[in-house]
Specification:
The complex is a heterodimer of chains A (124) and B (292). Chain A has helices at 15-28, 40-50, 66-76, 91-100, 112-123; strands spanning 7-11, 33-37, 54-58, 82-86, 104-107. With 124 residues, chain A is an alpha/beta fold. Chain A has one domain: 3-Layer(aba) Sandwich (Rossmann fold), CATH 3.40.50. Chain B is built from 12 helices and 9 strands. In chain B, the strands form 2 sheets. In chain B, strands 1, 3, 4, 5, 6, 8 and 9 form a 7-stranded antiparallel sheet that branches. A two-stranded antiparallel sheet of chain B has the order 2-7. Chain B has 292 residues and is of the alpha+beta class. In chain B, strand 8 and strand 9 (284-291) form a beta hairpin. Classes of the chains: A alpha/beta (124), B alpha+beta (292).
């Protein structure tokens, strides 16, 4: 896929999780510009600053969690493409994130074909 | 899972030294299971017969099965059975210890029979069942005179399965150790709260963490950096997340996880019900510290 001029915001408190998601995306396509955030508040601030084409949010994060970040981003842009990256054991929080406006979700450990399908549907 | 615990059984029986075990584990990946070890395990041949055929192989350019059949130690149908049968994984460790001279074939034969009887192993596929793994973990805790609670068995059953799944099956857990003060290397802790309260930590030396992270993240790390540190946190978080899901599904117990964090205290003060399990991998030893 061609991700030229596409901005992708990845928010996760784990630097490894951010790297793994970036690596998977880079295997799917080229040209994306990545923006990192390590907590929910930073994700809202970076969204406001960069208006990314797609945003990946972890649920369990310090300062503000993924659900609060979804709400904060939705206040900035109701049409924002937000994908929740959920870990095991966060099913009830995942439901809250979807209700708050997240468009889709993927589960850790990441499956590259699932990430590809998701990117095709949201950025293709 | 029987392979992993077989090493600890051998240590408890003082059949091998920790150094011999570590060295055998380190060379496991280079070892292939041999027909003689399998024949002995199935009860088709005695250790003495296997030793004799191995000796004859140094004199004659023939395969093991060929000589064993010529000597009437093995029948054709038994050979066929050995070649197609599913083999228990603990045999490989046993054979490696024979190869390195730590034990003899006859000692291995005896130890295998006792190990199978003690853990009620009847067929090679037993090692796949949850009941057998639980029994194995109960024996593991009992051998160290640790109290056996339903939750600690469930927790350890999952942690060993997750080590197999995410890090690799080439490990041996050593008996749990009780201590009040534990000196940390690089240690990550996560608290679980709810109807049960649990503090779980994973600790290892930086170089071991590099090996651990390389396997967990499926990336080739060479130095102890932030990705390596994050790998330890991610593994613990993933494991405890799976544990909380299992507890919810199996016994309707809802648990909450705190985010995992690095332990900054150089010495952990542990309560009476805490224990430390050293787990030996070829890349180093990791320490699971659990208060449950």
């Amino acid at each position: 896929m061609d991700f030229t001029n596409k901005k992708i915001l990845i928010s996760d408190d784990s630097i490894l999780a951010r790297k793994q998601l970036k690596d998977v995306i880079c295997r799917v396509g080229e040209g994306a510009e990545f923006i990192d955030a390590s907590n929910g508040q930073e994700a809202i601030d970076k969204y406001k600053e960069f208006t990314p084409d797609i945003t990946f949010l972890d649920i369990v994060m310090p300062v503000k969690d993924g659900i609060e970040a979804v709400k904060g981003i939705m206040e900035i842009n109701k049409e924002a493409d937000i994908i929740i990256v959920s870990s095991v054991g966060t099913q009830s929080q995942l439901k809250s994130a979807i209700e708050a406006g997240a468009k889709d979700f993927i589960q850790k450990p990441l499956d590259s074909s699932q990430v590809e399908t998701l990117l095709q549907s949201h950025l293709g | 899972m029987f392979a992993q615990f077989f090493g600890n059984y051998l240590l408890n029986r003082k059949a091998v030294t920790p150094e011999q075990l570590s060295s055998a584990i380190a060379s496991l990946t280079d070892t292939h299971i041999r027909l003689g070890t399998l024949a002995m395990h199935k009860g088709y041949m005695t250790a003495a017969e296997v030793d004799e055929v191995c000796f004859l192989q140094t004199r004659e350019d023939k395969r093991f099965g060929e000589i064993a059949i010529e000597r009437n130690y093995l029948f054709e149908d038994q050979l066929e059975d050995l070649l197609k049968s599913q083999n228990p994984d603990y045999l490989l460790l046993g054979q490696t210890l024979v190869d390195t001279g730590a034990i003899s074939n006859s000692e291995l034969e005896e130890l295998m029979i006792e190990y199978q009887a003690e853990n009620e192993i009847e067929s090679p596929t037993d090692s796949e069942s949850v009941e057998h793994t639980s029994k194995l973990i109960e024996n593991f805790l009992l051998s160290a005179e640790r109290p056996v609670s339903k939750y600690s068995v469930m927790y350890l059953n999952l942690v060993f399965n997750n080590l197999v799944r995410f890090i690799g099956e080439d490990f041996t857990p050593l008996s749990p150790v009780q201590t009040t003060g534990y000196e940390t290397n690089y240690c990550v802790t996560q608290r679980i709260s709810g109807q049960i309260n649990c503090v779980s930590s994973i600790d290892m030396e930086p170089q071991t963490a590099v090996g651990f992270a390389s396997r967990y993240a499926k990336m080739e790390f060479t130095e102890f950096d932030e990705y390596v540190k994050a790998s330890l946190e991610d593994f613990l978080n993933l494991h405890n997340g799976l544990f909380s899901v299992n507890m919810s599904n199996e016994i309707s117990m809802e648990l909450t996880l705190d985010p995992p964090a690095q332990e900054l205290d150089p010495v952990l003060t542990l309560s009476d019900n805490a224990f430390v399990i050293p787990v030996i991998y070829p890349f180093g030893t990791i320490y699971l510290i659990l208060t449950l």
